[in-house]
């Protein structure tokens, strides 16, 4: 009996000291300069976004301008800088969701963006793999060629893209045209990032698999892709967002409101004469939610060094 | 083989290329899957346009859209011959969609759009069809002469007027008992209600917008063009209108600074603006508990005529490609009829061009509508000359300069006259040239032929090497092929198009003429690169010519360098802070990535709002800590700063993620080794972190430079090049040339220059990093 | 199982000197062959050509009775253990070992059985569920070995598998590998730059230098009967002393020694004389007819039972491995003797061994 009690006691004591150590560490963290820096950076990042949020939840189209009396104290002045709506309301969200086929557009966007991600990754993974693993004439030039596409102002590509996609390929009013254009737009970034990551994967792993009789296909699927997951997550996310936020091509290519993507729907709230910023903010938040969810889901991968430990031995 | 390929690379390249590939290419397989998937996407039901279906594009939303759709539904029910299908297009892309689709034989049968583009469309051809032959005199009698006249260009009628919009005086009944009859009364009233300390203003309107300034401008009678349609911006009346505005802003101080429509609405809704000048579009945004009245704008004592706001007419236009003009005209008649007008007025809150509607009891009861109707009697339709579209932005810049005291009205208008005159002349010259048949000069064909034959000879000479290269590196090429094909089609073809365009003098007015008649050669490049007009004026009065290519280039380089350096530096600091475990690390990481997740369109606008000189939180915060507020958009430096802050804020997340990834791949034992050797934190950072980050940093920096160089949204939305285009970067300048001055070819040449500059940069950067690598 | 044969095999990268200019080598069936040589000598390239990871630029490469020049690596039925293990970091130990078998579509039960057997043999049974990141270097290498073993290939290839391990583990793993080879007798080719590893593991050793095969033979053959200075200097630790001497026709001499030798007259004026450190003895205990030499001690490395004595006269340096009978100090002068029979002679120009018809050391020694 006594023996077991002693054991338990020491165990608890150990647990306690563990908790104490943890608390101490947390406190130490909180009072470190790094924490202060992160806190400050976080505030700077979030502050403008809070304006969007509070506008969205204000139920109005614009936030109240702060009217301060001349003799307002320091704290009242400071309080005026806090982005809070005068009253909270879901009216903007209701209007955005009900007055337009917003959910339908969201769904459209999801299909288009996911397809873009898929097509973009398929194209960029294979190209990046070649750029990383092969030495062939024209390799360097090829890499630069990919970059060139980012150098020409997109606004001036509008008409030629229309000519190609709608007139030549007959892909007007079809998501396929959009998907292709988006995937190609995101391609240079994806190729460059993936190539960089593939470069860090050791050759021996592939050689080993090759010796074990795996086909290139198997190696690509079972070895390279799983190992490059972090890079694929990042580039996939990038392709997704390229498609998710694009508005002008989507509204020019689509001739059917049921096929519009959600950024097109959002822009209905903005016009030269009067803009409904409250709706726009609410819509923007709705539009951002899936992306934020993706970020949360992928954040483990975003900066992961999966292969670092094991491979480099 | 590349010079840098190490032995190791060679071996592996060898391996990949030589070992026969038995299985299908992974890429090929992946692509196949994707292809099937895409076929699924392509076979989605595409609403086929039946021959008897009329397609109508419009930019309405909300109530007005519902009203229009109800009308169309009714129309579809009322007859069997034609079915009408409507497509709403967001305002921001409507013009682009029209100019992309209609000249190419695509697009709708009918579209509803502002009338001020008629001149440009008519001159260019292929965009809008004249309807004189369809419209009966009886139908025309539905509309007041001024609105019909607005739809006419060079004697032909293009479309029917549908709705009209103009500004009028909207006043807060709680503050203003009866609306002022004259501008003297207006000013006196406004002064009484102005208390700048408390942010109260007697009058608020978007006075730096030319559309709103029209009221003053037109009351002096002259307008931007003289009777023969020639540009006359520096006319006495126009200058006096500016002087009067200047008096209101700087002497009477009855107007808020940096006005925009959101601010005006906001001030009015909070009872902080006694009167505003705005249009019917604002009525929907006035808060329900506000008791307001609408009245026509007062008589202008200074000019001796009533204030005469500009009227924008929403016309129904017919596409030249419409299959069934009669059916289309039927719909036009229906929509401009009295019943339809009534619905648009009552349910849609519009002001129908069919004035009979205003005598209808339901509309009679609407005091606001009647006030706008009365305003129409003195209002002036916006000139629909093609030159008019060139005017908006330069006039806006001039207005801003004048009200900020940066220029005197007379001088500024003279300068403006010269500037716009040049733009107009450029358009007209191009058109005149296109009118005379020309052909591409022989030497061009010669050059092309020489290039092609040179290429062919070269290919033939190297055929064996190319064939051998294909054989040895077939796998590699096959992997890259799909991506390259895509790039070829969707990037390099448009690029070639841009290149060809840049050798022409294509503008809005001659874009649909044959290519050969537009051929110009290298003139565009010569005039961009030879643009040495660095200064305006002479002697002490001279100032930098902000439209100058080299100034813009300088700004662009400063913009790119400062952005990238700051973004990389700050991202590096944050990444280092996040690299090691810390309390709440995961949350910070997500938090700091957020700006990446929100569309930059809206965050850029939020930043613009935060920098508002009077109501922005940044100036308020400055005042809280006892500093003077800054007029952010008035000087080159501060305006630059607004864009910089916004863009750095936007680009840090990407950089941070890239750097974090790089940091995690640095083996920890290197740091331990360095610590053992007594290296300080700084040395560790310099000797280990930075060099090992380079592989991830170099591509990220190159990409980031390219992106920042072409960062259109932030400049356009935040500072909009303020003041007076001084902070425009090359791409916004190219955009302005293309879409505000309509000199497409010149804009294309500008873009090609951008491309070449960036290409040079990328080559240089890669060479530098390669030599650095080799030196290690 | 199968032997491996190189017939005039050439490896050349475009635009550079051949890495392997023309190799003839035969690895017998079931043999454990070690390829050894300094780094950059082409041993890894040779190994990788067997694996198929490098193409063969010329000549013929046979595994068993198959010409494998154009056979893809996966179909050569060889297994390879890499220096950095090349384990798949995203798979568990079990999955790592199962990968090749699954690729070959072996039944899952067979896979399990094979892996369990291999895991038993290698002491990995407890680690099957772990990922490579959670293993130590030695464990990783055992997994890599196991992965090769379960495949039961015709040929095992080892590419410096032990060089990332610490000394103790290396000895242990060496024993492991030797035991496995005894058990399974699979043809193995083992690349290393470490001659101790080569001596202990190899049934035969092939020494490569700059792509050329210097000599093939059993460890003892190479040790006792080197064909050239390179092999002589490579085998043995510390390596054989190579001393330049002048050929006086009847004697070979330099500042350190003067050795009467018969049959030198037909040879060049400059010779290299090879003498293993362990062949030097204290002059006092040596037979009288052995040549002597006197030199100052520069440094002494004490190994316990014996010591390595570094001697120097002018430019000449010499190492002797002597029993630790008495303490020696630097600066002391010492007199040593050696069996003239143990002297090797090399041509200074070609650096090839000169095998004299009559044994060395006939003449009366001086000094």
Structure description:
- The complex is a heterotrimer of chains A (313), B (776) and C (367).
- With 313 residues, chain A is an all-alpha fold.
- Chain A contains 15 helices and no strands.
- In chain A, helix 9 (203-211) runs antiparallel to helix 10.
- Chain B is built from 32 helices and 16 strands.
- In chain B, helix 16 (392-403) runs antiparallel to helix 17 (409-435) and helix 23 packs across helix 29 (681-709).
- In chain B, the strands form five sheets. In chain B, strands 1, 2, 3, 6, 13 and 14 form a six-stranded mixed sheet that branches. A four-stranded mixed sheet of chain B has the order 8-9-7-10.
- Among the domains of chain B are: 53-164 and 313-365, Periplasmic binding protein-like II (D-Maltodextrin-Binding Protein, domain 2, 3-Layer(aba) Sandwich), CATH 3.40.190.10; 168-308 and 384-390, Periplasmic binding protein-like II (D-Maltodextrin-Binding Protein, domain 2, 3-Layer(aba) Sandwich), CATH 3.40.190; 547-742, MetI-like fold (Orthogonal Bundle), CATH 1.10.3720.
- In chain C, a hairpin with a 4-residue loop joins strand 12 and strand 13.
- In chain C, 23% of the residues lie in helices and 33% in strands.
- With 367 residues, chain C is of the alpha+beta class.
- The model of chain C is unreliable at 361-367 (pLDDT under 50).
- Chain C has helices at residues 43-51, 93-103, 108-122, 137-150, 167-184, 195-201, 219-224, 229-234; strands spanning 4-12, 18-27, 32-36, 58-63, 66-67, 78-81, 155-159, 187-192, 204-209, 212-217, 241-247, 251-253, 258-260, 270-275, 280-282, 292-302, 306-313, 316-323, 333-338, 344-347, 353-354.
- At the B-C interface, helix 1 of B face loops of C.
């Amino acid at each position: 009996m006594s023996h077991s009690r002693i054991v338990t006691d020491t165990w608890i004591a150990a647990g306690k000291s563990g908790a104490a150590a943890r608390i101490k560490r947390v406190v130490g963290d909180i009072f470190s300069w790094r924490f202060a820096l992160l806190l400050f950076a976080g505030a700077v990042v979030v502050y403008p976004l809070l304006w969007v949020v509070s506008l969205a939840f204000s139920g109005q189209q614009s936030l109240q301008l702060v009217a301060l009396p001349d003799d307002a104290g320091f704290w009242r002045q400071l309080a005026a800088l806090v982005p809070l709506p005068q009253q909270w309301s879901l009216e903007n969200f209701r209007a955005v969701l009900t007055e337009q086929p917003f959910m339908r557009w969201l769904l459209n966007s999801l299909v288009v963006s996911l397809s873009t991600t898929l097509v973009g990754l398929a194209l960029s993974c294979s190209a990046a793999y070649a750029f990383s693993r092969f030495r062939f004439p024209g390799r360097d030039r090829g890499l630069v060629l990919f970059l060139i596409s980012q150098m020409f102002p997109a606004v001036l590509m509008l008409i030629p893209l229309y000519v190609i996609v709608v007139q030549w390929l007959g892909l007007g009013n079809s998501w396929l045209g959009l998907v292709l254009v988006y995937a190609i737009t995101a391609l240079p970034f994806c190729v460059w990032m993936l190539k960089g990551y593939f470069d860090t994967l050791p050759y021996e792993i592939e050689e080993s698999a090759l010796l074990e009789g795996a086909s290139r296909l198997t190696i690509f699927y079972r070895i390279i892709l799983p190992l490059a997951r972090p890079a694929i997550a990042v580039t996939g996310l990038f392709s997704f967002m390229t498609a998710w936020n694009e508005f002008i091509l989507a509204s020019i290519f689509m001739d059917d409101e049921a096929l519009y993507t959600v950024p097109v729907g959002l822009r209905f709230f903005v016009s030269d004469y009067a803009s409904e910023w409250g709706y726009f903010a609410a819509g923007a938040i709705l539009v951002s939610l899936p992306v934020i969810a993706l970020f949360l889901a992928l954040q483990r991968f975003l900066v992961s060094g999966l292969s670092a430990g094991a491979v480099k031995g | 083989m590349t010079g840098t390929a190490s032995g190791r690379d060679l071996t592996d390249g060898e391996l990949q290329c030589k070992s026969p590939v038995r299985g299908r290419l992974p890429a090929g397989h992946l692509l196949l899957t994707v292809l099937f998937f895409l076929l699924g996407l392509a076979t989605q039901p595409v609403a086929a346009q039946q021959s008897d279906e009329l397609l109508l594009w419009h930019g309405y939303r909300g109530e007005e859209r519902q009203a229009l759709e109800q009308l169309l539904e009714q129309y579809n029910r009322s007859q069997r011959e034609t079915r009408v299908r409507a497509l709403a297009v967001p305002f921001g892309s409507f013009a682009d969609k029209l100019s992309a689709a209609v000249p190419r034989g695509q697009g709708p049968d009918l579209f509803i759009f502002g009338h001020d583009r008629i001149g440009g469309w008519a001159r260019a051809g292929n965009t809008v069809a004249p309807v004189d032959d369809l419209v009966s005199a009886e139908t025309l009698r539905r509309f007041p002469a001024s609105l019909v006249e607005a739809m006419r260009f060079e004697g032909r009628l293009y479309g029917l007027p549908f709705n009209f919009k103009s500004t009028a005086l909207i006043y807060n009944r709680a503050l203003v008992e009866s609306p002022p009859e004259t501008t003297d009364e207006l000013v006196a009233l406004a002064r009484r209600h102005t208390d700048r300390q408390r942010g109260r203003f007697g009058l608020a309107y978007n006075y730096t917008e030319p559309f709103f300034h029209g009221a003053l401008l037109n009351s002096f009678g002259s307008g931007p063009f003289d009777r023969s349609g020639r540009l006359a911006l520096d006319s006495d009346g126009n200058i006096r209108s500016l002087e009067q505005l200047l008096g209101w802003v700087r002497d009477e101080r009855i107007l808020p600074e940096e006005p925009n429509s959101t601010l005006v609405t906001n001030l009015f809704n909070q009872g902080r603006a006694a009167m505003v000048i705005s249009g019917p579009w604002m009525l929907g945004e006035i808060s329900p508990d506000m008791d307001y009245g609408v009245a026509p704008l007062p008589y202008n004592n200074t000019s001796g005529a009533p204030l005469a706001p500009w009227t924008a007419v929403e016309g129904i236009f017919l596409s030249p490609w419409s299959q069934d003009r009669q059916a289309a005209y039927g719909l036009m008649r229906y929509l401009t009829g009295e019943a339809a007008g009534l619905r648009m007025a009552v349910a849609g809150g519009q002001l129908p061009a069919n004035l009979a509607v205003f005598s209808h009891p339901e509309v009679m009861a609407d005091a606001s509508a009647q006030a706008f109707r009365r305003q129409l009697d003195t209002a002036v339709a916006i000139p629909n000359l093609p030159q008019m579209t060139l005017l908006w932005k330069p006039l806006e810049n001039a207005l801003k300069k004048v009200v900020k005291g940066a220029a005197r009205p007379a001088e500024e208008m003279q300068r403006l006259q010269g500037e716009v005159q040049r733009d107009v002349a450029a358009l007209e010259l191009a058109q005149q040239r296109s009118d005379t048949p020309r052909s591409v000069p022989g030497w061009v064909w010669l050059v092309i032929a020489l290039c092609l034959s040179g290429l062919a000879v070269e290919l033939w000479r190297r055929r064996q090497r190319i064939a051998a290269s294909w054989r040895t590196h077939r796998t590699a090429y096959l992997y890259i092929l799909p991506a390259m094909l895509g790039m070829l089609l969707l990037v390099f073809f448009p690029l070639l198009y841009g290149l060809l365009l840049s050798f022409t003098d294509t503008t809005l007015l001659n874009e649909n003429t044959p290519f050969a008649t537009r051929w110009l050669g290298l003139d565009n490049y010569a005039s961009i690169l030879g643009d040495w007009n660095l200064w305006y004026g002479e002697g002490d009065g001279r100032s930098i010519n902000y439209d100058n290519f080299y100034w813009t280039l300088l700004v662009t380089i400063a913009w790119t360098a400062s952005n990238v350096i700051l973004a990389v530096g700050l991202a590096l600091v944050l990444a280092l802070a996040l690299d090691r475990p810390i309390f709440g690390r995961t949350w910070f990481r997500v938090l700091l990535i957020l700006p990446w997740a929100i569309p930059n369109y809206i965050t850029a606008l939020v930043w613009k709002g935060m920098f508002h000189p009077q109501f922005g939180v940044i100036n308020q915060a400055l005042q809280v800590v006892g500093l003077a507020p800054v007029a952010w958009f008035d000087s080159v430096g501060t305006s630059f700063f607004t864009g910089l802050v916004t863009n750095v804020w936007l680009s840090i997340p990407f950089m941070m993620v890239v750097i974090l990834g790089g940091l995690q791949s640095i083996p920890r034992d290197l740091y331990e080794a360095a610590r053992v050797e007594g290296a300080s934190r700084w040395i560790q950072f310099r000797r280990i972190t930075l060099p090992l980050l380079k592989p991830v940093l170099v591509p990220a920096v190159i990409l980031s430079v390219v992106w920042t160089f072409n960062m259109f949204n932030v400049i356009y939305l935040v500072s909009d090049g303020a003041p007076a285009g001084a902070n425009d970067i090359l791409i916004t300048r190219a955009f302005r040339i293309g879409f505000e001055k309509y000199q497409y070819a010149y804009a294309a040449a500008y873009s090609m220059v951008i491309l070449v500059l960036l290409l040079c940069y990328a080559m240089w950067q890669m060479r530098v990093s390669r030599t650095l690598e080799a030196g290690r | 199982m199968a032997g491996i044969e190189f017939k005039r095999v050439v490896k050349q990268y475009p635009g550079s000197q051949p890495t392997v200019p023309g190799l003839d080598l035969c690895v017998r069936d079931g043999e454990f062959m070690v390829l050894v040589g300094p780094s950059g000598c082409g041993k890894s390239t040779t190994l990788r050509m067997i694996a198929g990871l490098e193409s063969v630029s010329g000549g013929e490469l046979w595994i068993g009775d198959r010409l494998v020049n154009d056979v893809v690596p996966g179909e050569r039925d060889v297994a390879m253990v890499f220096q950095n293990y090349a384990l798949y970091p995203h798979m568990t130990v079990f999955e790592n070992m199962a990968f090749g078998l699954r690729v070959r579509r072996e039944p899952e039960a067979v896979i399990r059985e094979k892996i369990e057997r291999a895991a038993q043999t290698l002491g990995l049974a407890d680690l099957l569920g772990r990922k490579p990141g959670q293993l130590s270097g030695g464990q990783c290498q055992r997994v890599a070995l196991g992965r090769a073993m379960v495949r039961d290939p015709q040929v095992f290839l080892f590419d410096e598998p032990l060089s990332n391990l610490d000394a103790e583990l290396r000895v242990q793993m060496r024993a492991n590998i030797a035991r496995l080879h005894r058990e399974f007798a699979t043809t193995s080719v083992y690349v290393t730059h470490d001659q101790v590893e080569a001596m202990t593991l190899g049934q035969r050793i092939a020494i490569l230098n700059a792509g050329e095969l210097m000599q093939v033979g059993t460890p003892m053959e190479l040790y006792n009967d080197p064909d050239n200075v390179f092999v002589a200097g490579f085998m043995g630790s510390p390596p054989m002393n190579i001393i330049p001497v002048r050929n006086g026709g009847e004697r070979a001499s330099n500042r350190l020694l003067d050795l009467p030798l018969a049959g030198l007259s037909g040879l060049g004026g400059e010779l290299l004389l090879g003498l293993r450190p362990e062949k030097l003895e204290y002059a006092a205990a040596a037979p009288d007819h052995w040549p002597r030499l006197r030199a100052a001690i520069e440094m002494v490395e004490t190994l316990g039972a014996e010591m390595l004595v570094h001697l120097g006269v002018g430019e000449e340096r010499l190492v002797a491995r002597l029993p630790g009978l008495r303490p020696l100090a630097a600066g002391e002068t010492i007199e040593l003797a050696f069996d003239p029979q143990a002297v090797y002679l090399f041509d200074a120009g070609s650096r090839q061994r000169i095998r004299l018809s009559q044994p060395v050391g006939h003449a009366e020694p001086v000094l």
